[in-house]
């Protein structure tokens, strides 16, 4: 019994540490399970693709006896190296990665940390400038996005929730959950599903799942780079490639802002605040800056002597009429009731 009481007392005192340790274990298990599932799904496709490439290479060498295996190896290595730098041997005369609009698309993916990887600096000067540019640009971009998101959250989330809370007298936590759910649905509809349908009509080699995959990967700043719009277009299919790239850049920036607004709205839910508090070391209720300032002011006020208390000790005690009447009855006297002089009290105040 004493041991069980000690265990219960220890768990109660270190509840936040235990919850945090369980959170770490859960996250590691989530990583391991995800890796196992991806490996089980993708490994057979990788083996099949390797076998197809091996057969295609053997067929090419058998049909072109003038080309040796070493020469083909050198050509393929050079082509893959160029492809890693965003230069493809297919349609190389029509696709440009470093005109102004393409460079603008590249800078937007760098500063938003999306990083598709389809275009990378080729020169050492470009690589050095990319480091310097990102070192300054990424914090500025985060500050810029946080300022925009804060204004939009106040306009789109906080004010509507407060308005309907006063208008309908609904519970604020439940109303916040309903609002966050509706906002997430609207965002997913206008910035994921509808753009995926648009990309499906513009990109002939994509199906709807691939278009949806690109939108989700881009707006969550994962940016794997396996699907990039406009990479397979010819001049006949896309007569305005620069305008197309510019529209994609605008879509990515606006979509990222909307995703951050939804995340911030969900982050401010009272239910999530209560859940997050279980993993904090200090079991203190989360307070906004105004409440914190009020508490700090109260603590400072408690440390200082209150002038009102000092004056109260100097003021005469004024008894009520009923108390004086009771005293008169007990004493049997008929002294009339005389209130305390207001002039004396006012002078002391």
UniProtKB/TrEMBL annotation:
The keyword Transcription does not apply. The chain crosses the membrane at residues 20-41, 100-119, 131-153, 174-199, 211-230, 242-263. GO terms for biological process: stabilization of membrane potential. Glycans are attached at residue 92. Keywords: Cell membrane, Cell projection, Cytoplasmic vesicle, Disulfide bond, Endosome, Glycoprotein, Ion channel, Ion transport, Isopeptide bond, Membrane, Potassium, Potassium channel, Potassium transport, Synapse, Transmembrane, Transmembrane helix, Transport, Ubl conjugation. It is a multi-pass membrane protein. It holds the Pfam family Ion_trans_2. The keyword Cell membrane applies. SUPFAM superfamilies: Voltage-gated potassium channels. GO terms for cellular component: apical plasma membrane; dendrite; perikaryon; recycling endosome; synaptic membrane. Residues 92-153, 188-266 form the Potassium channel domain. Residues 323-349 are annotated as: Disordered. It catalyses: Rb(+)(in) = Rb(+)(out); K(+)(in) = K(+)(out); chloride(in) = chloride(out); Li(+)(in) = Li(+)(out). It comes from the Eukaryota. It is found in: Apical cell membrane; Cell membrane; Cell projection, Dendrite; Cytoplasmic vesicle. Signal peptide: none annotated. One of its GO terms (molecular function) is outward rectifier potassium channel activity. InterPro entries: 2pore_dom_K_chnl, 2pore_dom_K_chnl_TASK, 2pore_dom_K_chnl_TWIK, 2pore_dom_K_chnl_TWIK1, K_chnl_dom. Belongs to the two pore domain potassium channel (TC 1.A.1.8) family. Homodimer; disulfide-linked. Heterodimer with KCNK2; disulfide-linked. In astrocytes, forms mostly heterodimeric potassium channels with KCNK2, with only a minor proportion of functional channels containing homodimeric KCNK1. Interacts with KCNK3 and KCNK9, forming functional heterodimeric channels. Interacts with GNG4. Identified in a complex with PSD and ARF6; interacts only with PSD that is bound to ARF6. Interacts with UBE2I. This is Potassium channel subfamily K member. The lineage of its organism: Eukaryota, Metazoa, Chordata, Craniata, Vertebrata.
């Amino acid at each position: 019994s004493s041991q069980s009481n000690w265990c219960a007392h220890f768990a109660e005192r270190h509840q936040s540490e235990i919850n945090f340790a369980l959170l770490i274990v859960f996250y590691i298990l989530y990583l391991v399970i995800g890796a196992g599932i991806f490996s089980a799904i993708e490994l057979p496709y990788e083996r099949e693709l390797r076998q197809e490439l091996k057969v295609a290479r053997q067929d090419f060498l058998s049909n072109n006896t003038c080309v040796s295996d070493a020469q083909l190896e050198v050509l393929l290595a050079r082509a893959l190296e160029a492809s890693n730098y965003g230069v493809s041997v297919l349609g190389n005369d029509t696709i440009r990665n470093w005109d102004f609009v393409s460079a603008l698309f590249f800078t937007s993916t760098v500063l938003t940390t999306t990083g598709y990887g389809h275009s990378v600096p080729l020169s050492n000067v470009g690589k050095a400038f990319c480091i310097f540019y990102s070192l300054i640009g990424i914090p500025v971009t985060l500050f810029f996005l946080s300022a925009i998101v804060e204004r939009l959250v106040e306009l789109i989330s906080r004010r509507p929730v407060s308005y309907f809370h006063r208008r309908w007298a609904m519970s604020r936590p439940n109303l916040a959950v309903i609002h966050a759910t509706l906002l997430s649905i609207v965002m997913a509809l206008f910035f994921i599903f509808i753009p995926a349908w648009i990309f499906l009509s513009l990109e002939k080699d994509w199906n709807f799942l691939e278009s949806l995959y690109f939108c989700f990967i881009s707006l969550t700043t994962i940016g794997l780079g396996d699907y990039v719009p406009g990479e397979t277009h010819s001049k006949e299919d896309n007569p305005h490639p620069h305008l197309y790239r510019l529209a994609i850049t605008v879509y990515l920036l606006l979509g990222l802002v909307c995703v951050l607004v939804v995340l911030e709205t969900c982050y401010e839910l009272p239910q999530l605040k209560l859940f997050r508090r279980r993993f904090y070391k200090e079991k203190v209720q989360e307070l906004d800056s105004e409440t914190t300032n009020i508490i700090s002011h109260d603590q400072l006020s408690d440390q200082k002597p209150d002038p009102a208390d000092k004056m109260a000790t100097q003021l005469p005690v004024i008894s009520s009429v009923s108390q004086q009447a009771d005293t008169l009855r007990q004493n049997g006297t008929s002294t009339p009731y005389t209130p305390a002089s207001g002039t004396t009290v006012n002078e002391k105040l």
